[in-house]
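ok so I'm stuck.
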Amino acid sequence: MRLELANAVRDRYATAANKDKSRILEEFIAATGYHEKSAIRLLNSSSKPKRRQSRQRPSIYDEAARGALIELWEASDRVCGKRLKALLPILLPALERNGHLKLDEEIRHKVLSMRAATIDRLLQKPRRTGRTKKLRVVPEPRRRIKMRTFADWNEPVPGSMEMDLVAHCGEVNRGSYVHSLVLTIASGWTEAAPIVVREGTLVVETLERIRLGLPFALTALDVCYGTEFVNNKLIEYSLGHGIELTRSRPYRKNDQAWIEQKNGAVIRKLLGYRRFEGLAAARAITRLYGASRLFVNFQHSFKLAAKRRDGAKVAKRYHPPQTPCDRLLQAESIPMAAKTKLTEIATGLDPLKLLEEMRAVQAHLAALTNGEIPPPATSEPPNLAAFVASLSSAWHAGEIRPTFSIEAKPLYLRSLQKVLRVRPPRPSWQSHPRPHRPRRHRRSQSRPTPNLAKAASRRFAWRGRSRAADWRNSPTSTPCSSSKSCASSFQADLPASNTKRSPDG
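replied:
not stuck anymore, here's the structure
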């Protein structure tokens, strides 16, 4: 605005007399607040802005030097400028020695005297034409949600939760199947609810039902990077209820370490790796989570206190085991009314009744996945006496959770178990057992104990052969009738304990 006023007053100030100039200058200073010398300098200057004079320096490296550099750059397989600068004193003489390149002395000196920054500047155009950079378009919801890593939590207060989906697809990740929406916090309090299909609207509706049943106010929510969470529906829901919404990094499971641990320790322990689909399975899972919610959140669990690494060894130290309910009761941010309600629920729980209900629902789900007809629901109370009596001998059956199945585990685990469990058939040439062969002892091992009986037998046999030769050569000797008689004549020389029965009898 002051420059516009100066442009309007400048012509009148230039043509006015000295008296009038003083009056115009005073009016201009009062309107703009300029210093007197600055106002005079501005009104006496030209209205056209001065162009900055750029100094034109002659270029040292012409097109010939640039062309030689490009050829050397291609011969080096397009390395960067710093590597090419170190490679030029070796590459250029090698090309000249083999007759692939011939440069004038002036161009050769220019190429060898180039700095790394100069090389990169001269190669900007060749690099730009050969590089096709794909524009990365970030979706608008992902830009609106702030990213948070595991190190950013810093021991969150109750109300800050992580949320994730657990897929119950079984062996094949295809078609529509039930998902479990899981929420947990640092205290260990875990909430879960089934979703028939993975869809953003159902996620928001299920989250609203879980939020209304929480014993504390939901203030912060960290979600996975999937599109079922990173969408405008969840963003608007979080803004409407005053929830701080953040997301984890793609393919970084440790950003949601608490929820990933609960997915395995709670959800997979309850439902295993079977495939659940349809409304009937979702209703049964709702009943299962209703019982397990009270069973898990009021049961003791460990919480990591510190972790120390010594090379490849990691030493972990844990706090004394506490229930998630006890950790919430110790938090100062939980209102007294919520603490009183939690205490009443904890004192009125029947753990065996909850466990029996969980086993019954698991058996119902196992029947659904196996294609069987589940038992009809009855209004009669469960027989807890029989259930309690069966606990003392249940360990004989091994795994007693009906939803647990080895065959329903992921494919790589099942194939590994089959390799370890099934032995290949024996070939036909191995159908008969091989004869026993004594092991050959190595020199490094201790020598076997010598067989004294065999050694004595060989010694006496040699003496017998020498005697027989002497008897044949004597003039009074007569030939034996048979070899058996010759051998029997020397049998008396052998010890009785070392004689062996001949095959001929």
